[in-house]
Write a structure and sequence with these properties.
The chain is α/β, with parallel strands linked by helices. The protein contains 20 helices and 24 strands. The two termini are 50 Å apart. 42% of the residues are buried.
Length: 721
């Protein structure tokens, strides 16, 4: 019986000679992880996605010899989503992070002994949050592949041909000879004589460099430090030679190597700091690039140079007691006995802390191709990106990483520690500075909500009045007859009968308002998309009520989709497909879009996609205070509001007030009015694109404070019931 492999679609194509593969950086990261997992469960399908060659890198065709693979055109990809895509029907996953996480989980389930699930990080949270809410995911999945590809392209354009290099070298040699004869020569700072080409480092790459500078974020680090401190004190009792005591320690794990260091006794602080700075400078890191506090080095890497498989690895050595800090056995015992957890620092050894994760797999691929573009000039990278360089140096000492790199045809034998002449020179453009706070944390939001003050509210409402903007309310297609007979439904259609009674009742009321609206405006055979579907409550109800329609659930949260999948399988629904991806990665054609409480900008993304597909929509917005301009959404949405002079800040003020709609609040009436204004702008935006719309309320109003409902369809899409 042949093995049924999961299809992994990535962008890429063969060159004309068929000896190389041209592919974007995210596709290369997928191939590298497939080799790292070493699991014969996948077929990698390269899709000719018309990628610009300047955005791609090349790999030898030999990188595919150990992997089942095929090449297809774009039309043969069964789903219209951003690549890479994993087809594990009924779940379709799109986007780099979702794809890699799913591959890791599948490989771990196949071979738990390899502990590949460790790559998913603490509580499986590595790159789990979508790019819209996590700056770290956005950096790894969107910003860095674009920035690094552009940087590689700039380096390629800046490279001087061999003939030009030789001509410049001869000209310089002739110049020196003329100077020796006492004859004048052109100034060495003459741009025409400068052999180096200056290339700007992108801000996204500098974000990563600065990210490595900050201390690692570790859950429950005090508990781990106490356990380590206990081990250190036990070890110190058995040491007879103080020179054997290591101030930098490696912590072996099943899948990686962590590192921590101990603050040294401050017997000679000045001498101790000079030793540390000397160690840094000897490895291509300047004193200005490091920070010292309490006689310890803020930057750490591999402890000593090593050479494996023809690739020389080096990093700063950790200062030892012999480096100006000699101690007797008694002094060592006293020093160790006085240690507290405050003298133990964890080293930012990997991109997300002290453990290797899937983020390191992605970043390793990006940085390898960056180094390849510089002809593997490690001194150049060390000079300008010291922390990234030392992280990379450590990564290629890991046996599993090296094995995967060899299978992916990464050339680890060409790294050079010698500065190359007539090569490029990096620089950081003016205006790019380290952020005052870390914008790449795995945080809930990229930016905080806008907070309006009372004068701002008064000004915004006065402009609404001066602009003659009126709220026009409509009605539900079924008026007040929106109830569904939940008792007749199978148990798994119900949103959760185990919920508290009042909460269960409110959820059912919310769902039946949207589901009955869909029943009224749908056409037979429609493709219906439940955006931001969560656990699939709304989509499952619609799929059960309309078995002749296809229903797509689009959601990024994999835990929610697992619950939805379980319910779908129990109900044996054959008309539901799940898409785990960012909303803007989904490009399938559809006829009707729905969403229940899509937060902030997500509501407008749904509306935008419905309009672009000329699809009907039933939308219940939420989190009005979370609206904010993005690279493809700007506020106000309607030209009507813009013509009235409503500016961005004033619209954000309306959104801020619209969130003050909790029942029995003093500002509830004003909040409801502002909520209606924001949704009036959305309704007008749809009307400007040829839609008929109705802005109404869920019944009863008590089912949720966010109880607005926007229903829209074109003239030729009216109900055919």
């Amino acid at each position: 019986m042949s093995l049924s492999r999961t299809l992994v679609y990535v962008a890429g194509r063969r060159n004309t000679a068929g000896t190389q593969i041209l592919l974007p950086l995210p596709s290369a990261a997928v191939l590298f992880l497939v080799h790292y997992c070493d699991c014969d469960l996948f077929e990698v399908v390269f899709v000719d996605d018309d990628c610009d060659a300047s955005d791609c890198v090349t790999l030898s065709f030999a990188a595919l010899l150990a992997t089942q693979h095929s090449f297809r055109d774009r039309s043969s990809c069964p789903y219209r989503c951003d690549l890479p895509v994993v087809c594990d029907v009924p779940v379709i996953r799109s986007g780099l992070c979702s794809t890699l996480r799913s591959l890791i989980k599948k490989c771990h389930a196949f071979n738990p002994g390899k502990h590949l699930h460790d790559l998913l990080g603490f509580r499986g949270g590595s790159l789990k949050a979508c790019a819209e809410v996590s700056g770290w995911t956005k950096l790894c999945e969107i910003e860095l592949p674009s920035s690094v590809a552009s940087l590689i392209s700039a380096i390629s354009r800046s490279k001087v041909s061999e003939a030009t290099i030789e001509d410049l070298a001869k000209e310089c040699e002739h110049s020196h000879q003329e100077e020796d004869k006492g004859q004048s020569a052109r100034p060495t700072n003459d741009p025409g004589r400068e052999p180096q080409c200056r290339v700007a480092l992108p801000e996204d790459l500098m974000k990563l460099e600065w990210h490595f500078k900050k201390p690692p974020s570790i859950h429950n680090d005090d508990k781990l430090k106490r356990a380590l401190l206990s081990q250190i004190k036990q070890e110190a009792e058995t040491i007879k030679d103080p020179g054997e005591f290591r101030f930098t320690r490696d912590i072996p794990h099943a899948h990686c190597m962590s590192r921590f260091r101990i603050k040294q006794p401050n017997q000679d602080k000045a001498q101790n700091e000079e030793v540390q700075n000397r160690n840094l400078r000897s490895n291509g890191i300047h004193d200005s690039g490091s920070e010292s506090r309490g006689g310890r080095c803020e930057i750490s890497g591999p402890e000593s140079p090593s050479q494996k498989d023809g690739c020389e690895i080096s990093g700063p050595e950790s200062p030892s007691p012999k480096d100006g800090c000699e101690m007797s056995v008694t002094e060592l015992a006293e020093f160790v006995s006085s240690l507290t957890i405050h003298e133990i620092d964890f080293v930012h050894l990997y991109s997300e802390g002290i453990d290797i994760t899937v983020a390191d797999m992605i970043l390793f691929t990006y940085i390898y191709f960056l180094m390849q573009s510089t002809d593997f000039d490690r001194m150049l990278i060390r000079e300008h990106l010291p922390r990234i360089s030392r992280w990379f140096d450590h990564m290629i000492t890991l046996p599993e990483v090296r094995r995967a790199a060899v299978k992916t045809q990464f050339d680890l034998s060409r790294f050079s520690d010698f500065k190359k002449e007539f090569m490029i020179k990096f620089y950081v453009p003016e205006g790019i500075k380290p952020p005052d706070h870390d914008e790449m944390e795995l945080s809930r939001r990229l930016r905080g909500k806008y907070r309006a003050i009372k004068p701002d509210i008064t000004k915004a409402l006065d402009k609404i009045k001066a602009g003659n903007i009126e709220v026009e309310l409509g009605s539900h297609p079924r008026n007040d007859q929106v109830q569904l007979d939940w008792e007749r439904f199978p148990a798994r259609v119900d949103p959760g009968r185990d919920l508290p009674k009042k909460r269960h009742q409110r959820k059912c009321e919310q769902l039946e308002n949207l589901a009955t609206a869909v029943l009224e405006i749908h056409h037979p055979g429609d493709v219906i998309v439940d955006f931001c579907s969560g656990g699939g409550h709304l989509g499952i109800v619609i799929a059960y009520l309309l078995p002749d329609c296809k229903v797509y659930l689009v959601e990024n949260n994999e835990d929610s989709l697992l619950r939805a999948r379980s319910r779908i399988e129990d109900l044996k629904l054959q008309n539901v497909t799940i898409f785990q991806c960012n909303q803007d990665y989904f490009h399938e054609k559809f006829n009707l879009g729905v969403c229940l409480h899509a937060c902030g900008v997500a509501t407008d993304m749904v509306l935008k996609q419905c309009i672009e597909n000329e699809a009907r929509f039933v939308i219940c917005p939420c989190c009005y205070g979370g609206i904010q301009d993005t690279h493809f959404i700007s506020y106000p949405r309607s030209q009507h509001f813009r013509n009235a002079g409503i500016e961005y800040k004033e619209f954000l003020t309306l959104g801020h007030v619209a969130d003050q709609t909790e029942f029995n609040m003093a500002l509830e009436e004003q909040g409801k009015y502002c909520m209606n204004l924001v949704d009036t702008d959305r309704s007008l935006y749809a009307q400007e694109h040829g839609y008929k719309t109705s802005l109404c309320s869920l019944k009863p109003l008590s089912c949720t404070p966010k109880n607005n409902l926007i229903i829209g369809y074109r003239d030729n899409q009216e109900c055919q019931r």
